[in-house]
Design a protein that fits this description.
Length: 285
């Protein structure tokens, strides 16, 4: 597929992000993850207007017609479209500078083939690819969850001093991941479970998509129910800001699957995460 000469991948002005976000209210909550993703970055630029290396991109000016966007946040990419043919999404992805190494997050299963076709056309190789399950628990059910803390334990928002521990335990850690955790811990909802000595026992973040994760328990604290406890507490916090709660679990992670399903979450979708290889030596400026 050749790129039409007039095609451009253009930044969608921040003043138009609300209009873009509201396109995903149709057939609610079918497109809620896309809605949450745009809302996330609206929140972030309000907190830090000078945020660097962040663009919400559209194909030409067609986003008002097709809801197609590509978010490039440093090395992370989030993409979505209301165009069921995926033509506009493919044309947009063909315009991405694939010389950089990107982690493409939460790619809907139906769009996996489009991404692979773009990779083939641009001769993009990838370091790894992972399949994940998207779980959902409606807002009302989240608010009804019972969160009972054992004596001596307490929950509070994660602080910067906790992030090196969280990053060390994260199986998907990578170059730049501690800074990623710092941003989602500081700017999004985050929770840590602590004992009387203020030791961090378990922790949970919220992805830019609004989905729970990463969620981890310290290795010396496993099998005590702390993962389930912090999952339920996080779900209630998400519901308090008016959202249904989602969670991303990588396929093959049987304990996490069991934990989400025991809490009442239902599998609603399948996603892919892909990390590409840089095609030449390039750096973010």
């Amino acid at each position: 597929m050749s790129i039409p000469e007039e095609d451009q991948l253009k930044p969608i002005p921040r003043t138009d992000w609300t209009e873009l976000r509201d396109m995903f209210k149709r057939e609610w909550p079918k497109h809620e993850v896309a809605y949450n993703s745009i809302q996330n970055y609206m929140n972030w630029v309000t907190i830090e207007p000078r945020i660097k290396n962040l663009e919400v991109l559209g194909l030409n000016d067609s986003w008002r017609d097709n809801g197609t966007y590509v978010i490039v946040d440093r090395y992370q990419v989030f993409l979505y479209s209301l165009d069921e043919s995926d033509e506009s999404l493919k044309r947009a992805l063909l315009l991405v500078d694939w010389d950089y190494s990107y982690m493409i997050c939460c790619v809907h299963e139906s769009r996996h083939s489009v991404l692979k076709e773009v990779f083939k056309l641009h001769e993009v190789d990838f370091k790894w690819e992972a399949h994940s399950i998207l779980y959902e628990l409606p807002l009302e059910d989240c608010l009804n969850l019972n969160v009972s803390l054992p004596e001596g334990l307490h929950l509070r928002k994660l602080e910067e001093k906790h992030l090196s521990i969280a990053n060390k335990h994260w199986p998907w850690r990578h170059e730049g991941s501690e800074y990623f955790l710092k941003r989602i811990a500081t700017w999004n909802i985050s929770l840590g479970l602590f004992n009387e000595c203020d030791e961090l026992l378990a922790w949970c973040f919220l992805w830019p998509t609004g989905a729970i994760g990463p969620l981890e328990v310290a290795k010396n604290q496993l099998r005590k129910g702390y993962g389930s406890l912090i999952l339920k507490a996080m779900a209630k916090e998400v519901a308090k800001i008016g959202l249904n709660c989602y969670g991303t679990v990588f396929s093959g992670n049987s304990p996490s699957v069991a934990m989400f399903e025991k809490a009442g979450f239902q599998s609603v979708d399948k996603h892919y995460f892909v990390r590409t290889r840089a095609k030449k030596l390039v750096e973010f400026t």
